[in-house]
């Protein structure tokens, strides 16, 4: 810790996350705001202050420059640096600014939020909890095996685009996405998922969450009805609720989304949100009969179906099932895909496939959101797909994930008998661990978190349906050693409940 005793009193913390220049800036600014440094007061020359604080002169210069730019200091040719002679009266003797402001003890003022803002204010804790950063703790779900990704191939492609990027790539781009990527995505979806579309129908987005937000903004008003699976993916639930729409929960049975029950609940739903290839979170595949019934219902009512195909690539028994969109003949299905589960989440790229007559409105909405996704990353991904690195990676991951799932099931059979029921699945990136009757999955999840495990409770995704308590157990991101250690830790937690 370094400090300068006379004027100005500046203490620098070398272990602080703040840069040194920012610490100098804050100290001087705070002294001015409190009136300790009066107008026209001279400050030490940057070279002298740097010597006294034992930092580089550029560190002090950067701090002074920031204060000069904000009007707290002024310079006089040949005379030096001074506290500004004219400071706004309301800033003098102002209380010290708290940089970590407590939102419950904030400024004494009234804020007129929109309905959307009021909803976020009310639900902010749950939303931030649902969409937190990756912990990389067993058994966090939805995370691919980053340790197995071919970064040497990805880096080689990225280096080529970043070393000498064409000028055109560095300008603004079409809001629907980089054309070669849209072409590559359309070709891949046709081959792998049976999606029928042209490249023009593909809109590149910053992940599924942005896709859902665009759909909500375009289709939903306050009190609009949306059919959602129960239990339902919290990302979709949070987005649609924030628009003021009314969520109508529809039970999921062994055939998937129950269209018959949906018809009994309402005929006015504008949207239907489903995960037909691998229902989230239960892992059920919607039968062909149910798919055809849902398409027929949408045609009769004029509703649109959102098909979230979030991890359909990972099917371990036979080929991945064809998409619901591929059966649509009336332009009623909006298809969502993501690369977060197949490449890595930080890439933040996904896609929408919209019916031809919706291309214009979705592209306009995309423009108003953030113009377009980063172009260089789109170019890298386009080449990665076009050169078939992506399809090879998917095939390799299927084998690895199937093996990791088998390890989890085998270890659970050894150490968790009678405490939790875990069965193998034909697809997906997680298994459900069903708890004994009467055991709270939320409480087990909290205890597991204390033990360094990430096991979300199934009950948190339910709207009306009362399911037996269960835990998400993601296995794709963890190797054999991590899975085995995680199972033993989970056993120690569960022993306290059964």
Write up this protein.
Helix content is 40%, strand content 13%. The chain is of the alpha/beta class and 498 residues long. It folds into three domains: 90 residues, Winged helix-like DNA-binding domain superfamily/Winged helix DNA-binding domain (Arc Repressor Mutant, subunit A); 253 residues, Aspartate Aminotransferase, domain 2, CATH 3.40.640.10; 102 residues, Aspartate Aminotransferase, domain 1 (Alpha-Beta Complex), CATH 3.90.1150. The strands form four sheets. Strands 6-13-12-11-10-7-8-9 form an eight-stranded mixed beta sheet, with helices on both faces. The protein has a three-stranded antiparallel beta sheet with strand order 3-5-4. A three-stranded antiparallel beta sheet has the order 14-15-16. A hairpin with a 2-residue loop joins strand 8 and strand 9. Helix 7 crosses helix 11. It starts with a strand and ends with a helix.
Which key phrases capture this entry?
Aspartate Aminotransferase, domain 1, 3 domains, 15 helices, three-stranded antiparallel sheet, 498 residues, Aspartate Aminotransferase, domain 2, alpha/beta, Arc Repressor Mutant, subunit A
Please name the fourth-level CATH homologous superfamily of the largest domain: Type I PLP-dependent aspartate aminotransferase-like (Major domain)
Strand content: 5-15%
Most strands sheet:
8 strands, mixed
CATH class of the largest domain: Alpha Beta
Residue stretches low in confidence (pLDDT < 50, at least 5 long) are 1-7, 96-101
Report the radius of gyration as a whole number of Å: 28 Å
Total helical elements: 15
Distance between the termini: 52 Å
Strand order of the largest sheet: 6-13-12-11-10-7-8-9
Q: Predict the CATH topology of the largest domain.
A: Aspartate Aminotransferase, domain 2
């Amino acid at each position: 810790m370094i400090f300068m005793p006379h004027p100005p009193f500046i203490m620098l913390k070398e272990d602080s996350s703040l840069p040194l220049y920012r610490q100098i800036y804050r100290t001087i600014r705070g002294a001015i705001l409190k009136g300790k440094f009066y107008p026209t007061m001279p400050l030490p020359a940057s070279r002298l202050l740097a010597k006294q604080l034992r930092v580089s002169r550029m560190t002090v210069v950067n701090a002074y420059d920031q204060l000069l730019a904000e009007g707290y200091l002024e310079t006089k040719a040949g005379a030096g640096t001074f506290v500004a002679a004219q400071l706004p009266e309301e800033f003098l003797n102002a209380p010290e600014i708290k940089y970590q402001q407590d939102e419950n003890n904030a400024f004494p003022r009234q804020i007129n939020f929109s309905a959307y803002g009021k909803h976020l204010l009310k639900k902010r804790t749950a939303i931030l909890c649902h969409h937190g950063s990756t912990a990389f703790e067993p058994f966090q779900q939805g995370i691919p095996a980053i340790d197995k990704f071919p970064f040497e191939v990805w880096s080689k492609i990225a280096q080529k685009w970043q070393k000498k990027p064409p000028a055109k790539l560095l300008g603004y781009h079409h809001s629907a996405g980089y054309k070669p990527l849209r072409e590559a995505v359309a070709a891949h979806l046709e081959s792998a998922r049976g999606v029928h579309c042209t490249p023009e129908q593909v809109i590149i987005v910053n992940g599924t969450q942005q896709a859902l937000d665009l759909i909500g903004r375009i289709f939903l008003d306050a009190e609009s009805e949306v059919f959602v699976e129960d239990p339902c993916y919290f990302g979709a639930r949070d987005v649609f609720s924030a628009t003021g729409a009314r969520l109508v929960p529809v039970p999921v049975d062994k055939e998937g989304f129950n269209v018959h029950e949906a018809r009994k609940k309402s005929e006015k739903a504008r949207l239907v949100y489903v995960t037909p290839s691998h229902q989230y979170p239960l892992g059920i595949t919607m039968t062909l009969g149910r798919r055809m019934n849902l398409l027929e219902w949408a045609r009769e009512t004029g509703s649109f179906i959102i098909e979230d195909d979030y991890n359909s690539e990972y099917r371990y028994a036979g080929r991945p099932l064809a998409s619901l969109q591929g059966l649509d003949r009336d332009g009623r299905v909006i298809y969502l895909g993501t690369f977060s589960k197949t490449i890595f989440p930080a890439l933040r790229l996904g896609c929408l496939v919209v019916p031809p007559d919706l291309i214009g409105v979705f592209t306009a909405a995309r423009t108003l959101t953030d113009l377009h996704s980063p172009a260089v990353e789109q170019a890298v991904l386009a080449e990665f797909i076009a050169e078939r690195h992506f399809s090879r990676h998917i095939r390799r991951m299927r084998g690895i994930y199937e093996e990791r799932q088998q390890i989890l099931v085998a270890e659970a059979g050894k150490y968790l008998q009678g405490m939790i029921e875990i069965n193998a699945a034909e697809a997906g990136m997680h298994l459900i661990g069903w708890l004994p009757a009467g055991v709270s999955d939320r409480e087990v999840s909290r205890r597991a978190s204390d033990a360094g495990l990430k096991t979300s409770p199934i009950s948190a995704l339910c709207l009306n349906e009362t399911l037996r308590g269960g835990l998400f157990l993601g296995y794709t991101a963890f190797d054999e050693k991590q899975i085995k250690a995680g199972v033993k830790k989970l056993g120690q937690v569960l022993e306290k409940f059964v």
